[in-house]
Amino acid sequence: RRRARVARLCRSALAWTLRLLRGRVCAKSTHAFVFSRCTHGNAGSVLETFDIYAETHGSAAVGPQIGQALDEVVRRVRPLRVLELGMHCGYSSVLLLRLLPPDGRLLTVEQDPAVAGLGEEIILVAGFKHTQFQVLTGSSGETIPTLGTFLEPAPGTSGTFNLVLMDHDPQQYLVDLLALENQGLLCPSGCSVVLIIRNRRDKCLEELKELIRARPDCYSIKSQVGGMVELFFQKSSSQ
Ligand SMILES: C[S@@+](CC[C@H](N)C(=O)[O-])C[C@H]1O[C@@H](n2cnc3c(N)ncnc32)[C@H](O)[C@@H]1O
Description:
Blueprint: H1 2-21, H2 27-37, H3 43-56, H4 63-77, E1 81-85, H5 91-97, E2 105-110, H6 113-125, E3 133-137, H7 140-143, H8 147-150, E4 163-166, H9 173-182, E5 191-196, H10 204-214, E6 219-225, E7 228-233
Helix pairs in contact: 2-3, 2-6, 4-5
The structure holds S-adenosylmethionine.
Pfam families: Methyltransf_3 (PF01596)
Organism: Hippocampus comes (Tiger tail seahorse)
Keywords: Catecholamine metabolism, Methyltransferase, Neurotransmitter degradation, S-adenosyl-L-methionine, Signal, Transferase
């Protein structure tokens, strides 16, 4: 048993050293690894292959821990229309898509066109079809004003999102949240906005807490797990 523990420690030390040496996130190398090693058509295998890659390489993906917390949110909210800001190679897109119902749809935004192409290919490799998702290339600031034209209304959602995942640029979270609200894109009867905050010292969380303090009738914190904060937006009909 002691030998097994030592072997495990050595393996994690090696993985940690490799991650340190290969620290820089590279979308092309992530894509090549996942594309060549996963079982095509199997979303679970795509996510597992991303996780194996992240053991020894720099990775931008949300990963299994935040992934589990995100799964819980999606299972509880059961959204039909989901917006993702910050797709990168598609880890969180695949994670979200595998829990959507057959009539669910994901719009995902990525500002880097080359990365957007790689991420789109991974979503297709995971077995999802263009009827289930659409990749929009552009910054969140440019794309949010156009989102209404891409959003097919689902019953009960009146052309709005029930779930938004922000994993793009924490400095943009507050601005983009307010832009989404101003464009009438957040479902007034309830929309969960999940924010990935990798750096605890990031001041975006303080800014968001100020918004909640100023407008407790519309915004609240629903859950907070590690690097993930779930805000809840709701607007009463009189507002
Ligand atoms: C941390 S990665 C996203 C990881 C992804 N959610 C996953 O789990 O694989 C952030 C991505 O957001 C993109 N990005 C950064 N700022 C953006 C913005 N303002 N609008 C759209 N995409 C942005 C970056 O190019 C990068 O690909």
